Amino acid sequence: MKNLYLIGSILLTFIFNIQSQSLKFQYAEIPLGQITPTNWLKQQSDILKNGSTGHLDEFHKKIQIDNGWLGGKGDDWEETPYWLDGALPLAYITKDPALIQKVNKYVQWTLNTQRPSGFFGPYSKYETETGKPVEIGSQGADWWPRMVMLKVLQQYYQATNDPRVIPFMQKYFAYQLKNLKENPLEKWTEWAKARGGDNLMIVYWLYNITKDPNLITLGDLIYSQSFQWTDMLGKRDWAIAAAYNQTGERWMERHAVNVGMGIKMPAIQYQIKNDPYFLNSLRTGFKDLMTLHGLPHGMFSGDEDIHGNDPVQGTELCATVEAMYSLEQIISITGETHYMDALERMTFNALPAQTTEDFYHRQYFGIANQVEVKKGIYNFSLPFSRKMNNVYGPFAGYTCCTANMHQGWPKYISHLWYATTDGGVAALVYGPNKLQTTLPNGMGLTIDEQTQYPFEDQIKFIIQPSKSSEFPIEFRVPIWCKEAIIHVNGKEIKREKGGQIVRIKRTWNKNDQVDLFFPNEITTKNWAKNSRSIEKGALIYALKIKEEVTKQIHPQEGEYLEIMPKSDWNFGLLKTTIANPIPNTSFHSVPFPKDFKWNSMSSPFEITTLGKKIPDWKTQDGVAHQPITTRTGVYEGNVNKESETIRLIPFGFTRLRVVAFPVVN
User: Fold this and answer.
1) What is the DSSP letter of 392?
2) Residue 366's beta-bridge partner residues?
3) Could you report the per-residue pLDDT of 326-355, keeping only the tens digit for each?
4) Quick one: how far is CA 658 from the chain centroid?
């Protein structure tokens, strides 16, 4: 394989080192800033830029006041780096000068204040008390928030090629190697031990550039001091036990955000060890995780612990964006299509449903079958005494999500293209964008990906090489597509089944066009307690419920929204629909909205079908516990005789919904 280096400035170039290298990967990341969102993804990016991502430092006091990452006495832990981990990539993919200037203020302070020992970041307790810089590890501070800032600096380097970043990291990793044995990851908090994979990832990224063997030694040390995610995922008893163990025993191993970060650990270590055990453990563990804890919207439960697959369980927003990022890394290393399908399912369903359309309010825990949003305990493993974990608010629940939610969309956009190891490019997940890059042969390349995917099943690629040249382009066929149709310049060249990668290697000329057609049908899928979801393409559909939104004020957590149903929601799907969904459902579409927003009024699609009301299906403390069914899979309790037409819209456009329906005769 070949080694990826950035050689240009913000805008254009990537190139492979022609020499072989030791890290194992199937695809390489495209440097930040070379992929620009268009169409609805540009509108979504603008919403983030004009919303809390672009302005969090102006109203979130923890970041706003005397920030430790600018030398002050304020936030010196994770929330400022969390915010930058989303705001910085957003700044460079949108090429917004004001946001670039805003985020770079923190980057420049970090680069300019590294201590001679290699330690960096906010001043430690030792430093503030003595006025002396950190020289040895015991004088330092928690390793964890520096792991997040390392990710920020990596992205900054990819976007700018600032020559200070590489020696900065070399110096810090030398400091870690010198001090970790006596001051291990867990010295200050267990978070660093749980999340050591994020540290390890940057160590190996730097090794791929410098080939410094000391980084391999450091990687082994970090891996040994971290949670053993590879063993936990591969040996299976971890995921099984977590389905019923909701005690405080080893809860950090079940903490959903730790899990979202931890799933990439086996793939990261595989890069250097080249042992199939790591990828086999990942495959086994991810399948177990999604089987035992997976929910219809594509995420696993986690409120805060992973909590089984009942659709009344919650999912933490931080866990969603971290799992997405882990999958983006796993895709690069493994090239396996089922992780690509999983990433799209999370992105287009779970992610948008947990924030308001303006990206100012968010939930700490969102529920799959969510028929009320209000203060309450619900069925969460961490209810929190203020009972604010389910409401939409800027600061509801814990504010880690206020800071960390911003990475989801920008990082998805920055991974819409990958580089192949033989001088080409690959579209492995989809969305409207424009790629502008330079191939290893020195040729400039622009590809305009014209689509409203996932809101249409056709994608057009306009290929613009700077001169005629032969190179490969690869495309993924989603698993839900039975047979994709591929055209080049208007002529069909291939049909391919779902779950495959299509590779087209040819001489490409200016204005060549590739069209992908992904025909899909309405299907149903079985979930916990014999419930069923309705799906079409990459989108999962949920009952559209009329909403009554009330603004409230909490003395500690500020403004928040309660949302209560103004229409019936307690419907079951007919058994005939489950057995044969196509003739028993109708699909409706409207022109795609010019002003795209994730709200129920903007959905371009609707599925109608018949349902029957279940009078005894009611909420208990806000929770719509699933009706009990027999082994036949059918609810046999009291059901209305008459069928009613029910309307379903894509999950991401809902705030109240039922997505996992009981089945009735």
Assistant:
1) B
2) 315
3) 999 999 999 999 999 999 999 999 999 999
4) 23
DSSP assignment, residue 346?
A: I
Same domain, 481 and 497: yes
- Cα(105)–Cα(103) distance, rounded to whole angstroms? 5
Quick one: 552 and 659 in the same domain? yes
Give the tokens for residue 265: 């650990």
- Chain-wide mean pLDDT for the chain? 96
Q: Is the dihedral of CA 577, 582, 585, 591 positive or negative?
A: positive
Tokens 């300019």 found at: 112
Compute the distance between CA of residue 291 and CA of residue 285 in angstroms, rounded to an integer. Answer: 10
Would you say residue 490 lies in a domain?
Answer: yes
The secondary structure of 418-467 as a DSSP string is EEETTS-EEE-S--SEEEEEE-TTS-EEEEEEE--TTSSSEEEEEEEESS
Q: How many whole angstroms from its chain centre is CA 560? A: 24
Looking at the domain assignment, is residue 562 inside a domain?
yes
Task: Say how far apart CA 440 and CA 461 lie, in whole Å.
Answer: 21
C-alpha torsion sign, points 439, 208, 503, 37: negative
- 643 shares a domain with 526: yes
Alpha helices (H) along 95-195: 97-112, 125-130, 144-160, 165-179, 190-194
DSSP secondary structure code for residue 17 in this structure: E
CA distance 344 to 131: 49
Does 556 lie in the same domain as 505?
Answer: no
For residues 537 and 628, state if they share a domain: yes
- Judgement on whether residues 496 and 549 belong to the same structural domain of the protein: no
Strand partners, 502: 475
Overall number of domains in the chain: 2
Q: Read off the pLDDT of residues 393-442 as tens digits, 9 standing for 90 and up.
A: 999 999 999 999 999 999 999 999 999 999 999 999 999 999 999 999 99
Q: How many CB atoms lie within 10 A of CB 513?
A: 14
Where does the pLDDT of residue 558 fall: very low under 50, low under 70, confident under 90, or very high at 90 and above? Answer: very high
The SS3 assignment for 180 reads coil
Distance of CA 383 to the CA centre of its chain: 24
Residue 390 in domain = no
Count CB-CB contacts under 10 A for residue 326: 25
Domain coverage including residue 507: 424-454+458-517
